[in-house]
Amino acid sequence: MSEARLNLAVQKSGRLAEGGMSLLKRAGLRFGYGRDALHRRAENMPLDLLLLRDDDIPSFVAGGACDYGIVGENVLYEAQARSERYGGLEVVLRLGFAGCTLKLAAPKDGSVRGVEDLEGRAVATSYPGLTRRYLEERGIIAEIVEMRGSVEVAPRLGIADAICDLVSTGATLEANGLAAFETVLESEAVLIRRRNGRNGPVAEVAATLIQRAEGVIASAQTKYILLNAPTAKLPDIKALLPGSDAPTVAAVAGRDDVVAVHAVCREQVFWETLEKLKAAGARAILVLPIEKMMA
Ligand code: ATP
Ligand code: MG
Question: Whose CA is closest to 44, among 96, 77, 5, 84?
Fold first, then answer.
């Protein structure tokens, strides 16, 4: 491993792998083959990927084998709740994908309705560190049953009274007759590093990567809106443009009752917004994606 190349840990396959690779590609990185199945080499930046199980990523970054990593906050904070070894890791950037929530849930018609009902009960989870800390902070002493997977079947099998598990749509809970009653953590994919990582050329590569990733994330959430507005309705229409402070207003050739409005909107643009704009008098409304951004 050459000294001057940045080592970035990403998940080998799974929910974080897809979003992570897509982000890196949109940030302009092109990858060739690495020297083995564990490595991939960027062809146009001094950067190497290490392809790992997501659970191993905090360990590789904390130990210095990797400079940076892409991991779920759930995995990072669980590692930190379990061991001081991970205290030196920090979140550099929230990446806006792989969103999920760590929730406490219990059988729908059972006696566990809230956190206070967990006193003296058993909670099955793959996140014993976060679950124990959450309950302790609320003065609840419960037995933590650690499971690697299929946590949602624990109550039915009589192994636990409740579970603490990741939820995205809630379909798995529903299918197992469970209902969530408390949120322990809101999680998304994040870029992490050691607080006192390598300086010099590697830090410069990292700074470029972070700046580009910020641009990719910002542009994914940002849209460019073009429309024609009756001059008299301009204040109403400006007020309806989501997350835009200073739209450009330009003349429309041969018309003095209509102006063209161009705006960068830093929030999602819903159909409802377009309907309101139209009702306010806007016409020829176009919403365009923005490919790249740099402030
Ligand atoms: P690995 O083989 O790398 O250990 P895994 O099975 O642990 O993979 P995935 O299921 O790919 O991992 O999930 C990776 C991450 O995706 C999770 O840690 C979490 O941050 C995020 N995630 C988003 N939605 C969900 C969900 N519904 N269930 C589980 N994880 C989710
Ligand atoms: Mg895993």
Answer: 5
